[in-house]
Write a structure and sequence with these properties.
The complex is a heterodimer of chains A (162) and B (754).
Chain A lengths: L3 E7 L2 E7 L5 H7 L18 E4 L2 E4 L12 E3 L12 H8 L9 H14 L5 H7 L10 H13 L10
Parallel strand pairs in A: 1-5
Antiparallel strand pairs in A: 1-2, 3-4, 3-5
Helix pairs in contact in A: 2-5
Chain B lengths: L12 H5 L15 E7 L5 E7 L1 H5 L3 E6 H7 L4 E2 L6 E2 L5 E2 L5 E7 L2 H9 L2 E6 L40 E9 L2 H7 L2 E9 L11 E5 L5 E5 L4 H12 L6 E4 L16 H11 L3 E4 L2 H4 L4 E2 L2 E9 L5 E11 L7 H9 L10 E9 L6 E2 L6 H19 L3 H8 L18 H11 L9 E2 L2 E13 L6 E8 L4 E5 L8 H13 L6 E5 L16 H26 L10 H9 L5 E8 L19 E13 L5 E11 L6 H20 L5 E2 L2 E2 L18 E6 L21 H13 L10 H11 L8
Parallel strand pairs in B: 1-14, 12-13, 15-19, 17-18, 23-24, 27-30
Antiparallel strand pairs in B: 1-7, 2-6, 2-8, 3-7, 4-5, 9-18, 10-16, 11-12, 11-14, 16-17, 20-21, 21-26, 22-23, 22-25, 26-27, 28-29
Helix pairs in contact in B: 10-17, 13-14, 14-15
The chains are: A alpha+beta (162), B alpha+beta (754).
């Protein structure tokens, strides 16, 4: 399969690389040493591979690498680029909203997006919005708490947009 | 400041929320090859021919390896913690669908995957056995010969039960069951079943082996690195120190990533091709590695008219699948408590670990206990109904209390059974009026309680290094899968040595530097390793004092360590190394299956559930789930609570939705699309109560609790359904269809089978 050169913005920096048509976004990010998006179920059902493409969360395992051409890609690694954790990340820590941590980056990114859409979410909003992310350690009650805590902490929406 | 007992975030929180935590999943080494596995498509068959030619010719394929190639490197390539029954790659026979038969190696995993598609194999198909009870008939034999491993002290008695499918049978005889049953006013018998389900860790099985020049290094997502080291060394005929096993953070274990999974395979491949090899399974492949035992449990009780259980007989068949893995321990260990947390004078237990042609079964969050509790707490509820007694009152009357002998003969000590039960009853507000619903939506509530004996006897070793500036590093073989073991040990070290836990550095699971640990399993770590860590810290403290004396510092003064080192060595130099080994006492069961000391500590857990049943569809909504467990004195209550709640939600999945479906030995729902684990929208309001007690021999009074949250969930829900609509579900999972079928059968208009 023939390689293609693609150019895109990755965590605020313009980048260019070659990739092949059968590779997915998770593999592309690995080329850049980014491992926060993780392929687990391989079917877009668990949310471990969540990546923001032009500010919209996608399942990196179902998103072809070549589609990144011309896009703006943000990963969990970008959230603390200035050295400070995002409000959502801090709230996940404060509420103990994970155990093994494998699914956590996906939840954090999806929760950031949730709070942009619903700055003051109800429990139902949270359950609905995050139903595409799974946590086998089942830290769900703590995740709900964390999202509410982050909302209360006067969430600043530009954090993800840098 | 007291360290132990404070709510303390895990040490690794920042690495986890930023996506930078290290998992084997991420690892790649220079020159590394990826292996993809060609698996058996038949459940039982003789291998006639494996055609690898087309795969070998595929551009980019480095090599294709079969079992015969492995045999040239390792003449006896069989592994396992109970029996050496599992070949690294299939030899002569395949025994379950999905068994690894060949591996394609390539620098690009996609090429390796394509290579696998080009392999074909021919088998002479043999009849297969899938059911644990049918496997008692010896007409289909999964294994012709069995070689006991002789590794673990509690499984030393295993032997080849030639001509059967029995891997282990455990029998307990206490008192006179037949005599007591004859005298009982009520004799009540039921048979309960559980399904095959699995761990579904989100970091699927993954291992990397680097052959090195004089030392083989294995990086792996594994819960028992010391076992991996010993077993790989045994396979190659090497000393232990030629194998290094490193485990970074693990993305979920739950008992699945124990003993050998991919480690022997990547090690053999790396040695064959002299390059690093990585195998990372897909979610689908996980369904063919290790599962939770399906069971059939026949339970019979004799009860007096005033509600005392005077006899109980338990016959449990465990479906261990094609390879024993740790199944024999599951069958034996859980056998000790198969009769439940009750004071019963006459008990018999017959527990059989069976080979079948399914994916192997091993440990999954509690070594078989949830399967047993499902049966005995459903049964207990049914007895109470039959004799017309409130299920809470009936249990109160029969609960086992400290100071009384448990069925195994071991005297119960530090087991807060009545306290946990009372906590549940209180939270459930059992004596208050309850809204039972109306019309098509009916409500009910149920309760369940259970007891577990921990895995024994097992060893943990800890090492503590105090550097010359006074900073402290702990070396431990425990694997942190999110349960917070690193953090708990840091709290212990901090407590003993008088420093904040956040200043303690924990180095985990690198067998070149971390000492032996039996494994992170069965809620044993905190008790065993926790004790070793405490003792090692005390050893270091004593040695530091001795160093102060050597340095001529007056006794009883409190010099900071940095001053002591400086005084003794004239500069910032030297170390103090504290170490300790912890091995509790244990008496193996005698010919009657009895022992005066079967466990160093008991675990107690229970659940209460309120449900609403839609009588038109059979749909069950859990309105409220209450969980309580004896956690001794919790070291880190915040983490302990999440452990309980996580365990309960996992068990909720095993109760309501999770089941592997088989067709001719093939799993037909091997994906998260068709195998439904709980998501955020599925969880009920959940309350968890840590019942604080004192474990006299636990580290600072604490005990393990990673599994206690699972115990009561399934029967509490079944009991609540019965309370709501008067039907009894005898088999897990409790799907809407199962409930609807039971409702329709009760109404005398049963649904058709298909």
């Amino acid at each position: 399969m023939s390689a293609r050169t693609i150019t895109f913005t990755l965590n605020g920096e313009p980048v260019s690389t070659t990739t092949e048509p059968h590779r997915n976004l998770v593999e592309l990010l690995q080329q850049f040493g980014l491992f926060g998006a993780r392929e687990s179920c391989g079917q877009g059902l668990c949310g471990c591979c969540t990546v923001l493409v032009d500010d919209v969360a996608v399942s990196g395992c179902l998103y072809f690498a070549v589609w990144a051409d011309g896009k703006t890609i943000s990963t969990v690694e970008h959230l603390d680029a200035d050295g400070a954790l995002s409000k959502v990340q801090q709230a996940f820590i404060d509420c103990g909203a994970f155990q093994c941590g494998f699914c956590t980056p996906g939840f954090v990114l999806m929760a950031q997006q949730l709070l942009k859409a619903h700055p003051d979410p109800s429990d139902d909003d949270i359950r609905h919005y995050l139903s595409g992310n799974l946590c086998r350690c089942a830290a769900y009650p703590e995740i709900i708490e964390a999202v509410k805590r982050a909302a209360k902490a006067a969430y600043v929406s530009e954090k993800i947009n840098r | 400041m007291n360290q132990v007992g404070r709510d303390f975030p895990r040490l690794e929180v920042r690495a986890k929320v930023t996506g930078r935590a290290e998992y084997t999943h991420h690892l790649r080494l220079p020159g590394m090859l990826y292996g993809k596995v060609f698996r058996s498509t038949v459940p039982h068959g003789r291998i006639l021919h494996i055609d690898t030619e087309a795969a070998r010719k595929l551009p980019g394929v480095h090599r294709v390896i079969t079992g015969e190639d492995i045999k040239k490197l390792i003449p006896e390539p069989y592994y396992g913690p109970a029996f050496h029954d599992q070949p690294i790659l299939a030899l002569e026979k395949v025994r379950h669908v999905g068994e690894p038969v060949a591996v394609v190696l390539a620098s690009d995993p996609h090429v390796a995957e394509q290579g696998v598609q080009l392999i074909s194999a021919e088998y002479e198909e043999l009849p297969a056995v899938y059911d644990e009870v049918q496997a008692m008939k010896p007409d289909i034999l999964v294994h012709e010969v069995l070689k006991p491993a002789g590794t673990f002290a509690d499984l030393k008695h295993l032997k080849d039960r030639g001509g059967t499918n029995v891997a282990l049978d455990y029998h307990l005889r206490r008192g006179d069951v037949d005599g007591a049953l004859a005298k009982a006013d009520h004799v009540i018998e039921h048979t309960f079943k559980t399904q095959q389900c699995l761990h579904v860790a989100f970091e699927p099985f993954v291992s990397v082996a680097d052959p090195g020049d004089s030392k083989l290094t294995i990086y792996t997502a594994n819960q028992s690195p010391s076992f991996v080291r010993i077993e790989i060394a045994r396979l190659f005929g090497w000393p232990e120190n030629r194998v290094r096993v490193k485990v970074p953070y693990v993305g979920g274990g739950f008992g699945g990533k124990l003993y050998i999974k991919l480690e022997a395979l990547v090690a053999a491949l790396a040695m064959l091709v002299r390059r690093p090899v990585k195998i990372a399974l897909t979610m689908e492949e996980q369904f063919y590695v290790i599962t939770k035992h399906p069971t059939t449990f026949r339970i019979k009780s004799g009860v007096t008219k005033d509600g005392r259980i005077i006899a109980r007989s338990c016959e449990v068949h465990w479906n261990g699948g094609a390879y024993a893995d740790i199944g024999p321990r599951v069958a034996q260990k859980s056998g000790f408590t198969a009769a439940g947390p009750y004071d019963i004078d006459n008990v018999s237990v017959d527990s059989y670990e069976m080979y079948t042609n399914r994916t192997p079964a091993g440990a999954l969050r509690c070594f078989g206990i949830p399967q047993l509790v499902w049966a005995y707490e459903s049964h207990t509820d049914l007895i109470a109904r039959e004799i017309g007694m409130d299920p809470v009152e009936f249990r109160h009357k029969n609960l086992l209390r400290n100071g009384r002998p448990q069925a195994s003969g071991t005297i119960l000590k530090d087991a807060a059974i009545p306290e946990v039960f009372q906590a549940l009853v209180k939270r459930m507000n059992w004596d208050a009026p309850f809204d039972r619903g109306a019309g098509i939506l009916r409500r009910g509530r149920g309760i369940a309680i259970a007891l577990k004996a921990v895995i024994s006897p097992t060893t943990s070793v800890a090492v503590i290094n105090i550097s010359a500036d006074g900073s402290i590093t702990l070396f431990t073989g425990s694997v942190d899968m999110g349960q917070g073991s690193d953090t708990a040990y840091a709290l212990i070290v901090g407590e003993v040595l008088g420093v904040p836990a956040e200043d303690v550095r924990v180095v985990h699971s690198d067998t070149d530097v971390t000492p032996y640990d039996m494994g992170t399993l069965g809620s044993r770590s905190f008790y065993h390793m926790g004790n070793a860590v405490r003792l090692a810290a005390e050893d270091a403290r004593g040695k530091l004092r001795a160093l102060a004396t050597e340095a001529g510092l007056p006794e009883g003064t409190n010099y900071p360590p940095v001053e002591i080192f400086k005084k003794r060595y004239g500069m910032q130099a030297g170390n103090v190394i504290g170490t300790a080994t912890f091995l509790p006492t244990y008496s193996p069961p005698d010919a009657q299956g009895l022992s005066s000391n079967v466990t160093p500590f008991w675990m107690v857990g229970g659940a209460g559930a309120e449900v609403e049943v839609d009588t038109e569809t059979g749909h069950v909504r859990v309105l409220r789930l209450v969980n309580a467990a004896d956690c001794g004195k919790p070291i880190n209550p915040a983490v302990a609570r999440t452990q309980l709640s996580g365990a309960a939600i996992m068990q909720l999945g095993f109760t309501l939705s999770e089941a592997m479906h088989l067709d001719g030995g093939q799993v037909t729902n091997a994906s998260l699309a068709d195998y439904k684990i709980p998501g955020m929208a599925d969880i009920p309001p959940i309350e968890c109560e840590l019942v604080t007690a004192e474990q006299h021999n636990g580290p600072f009074g604490a005990k393990g609790l990673g599994e206690s949250g699972t115990f009561g969930v399934s029967p509490a829900i079944a009991n609540a359904i019965h309370d709501a609509v008067g039907v009894r579900i005898m088999e897990l999972p409790i799907t809407a269809e199962a409930v609807l079928r039971a409702l329709r059968a009760k109404e005398g208009r049963p649904l058709d089978d298909e």
